[in-house]
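Entry 14. Structure prediction run on the chain below.
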Amino acid sequence: MAEIEALQKCAENGCEFIVEILWEGTIKVEEKEFPYYVMEKAQSDLKSTFSVTLKSIIRRV
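Output returned:
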């Protein structure tokens, strides 16, 4: 739940580059409850973002 609360707090405070939580809840599996959230679809994945950033840094060096 801490992750969900942190994302919600960032959104409330106008932080940039934070995913929007569309909805959240809990699911029960074998008598244990697990929190979950559904977020907006990202325009790209983190791996490709880091790859592009790393390549541009290497070119500058």
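Strands lie at 21-29, 32-39.
Filed with the rest of this week's runs.
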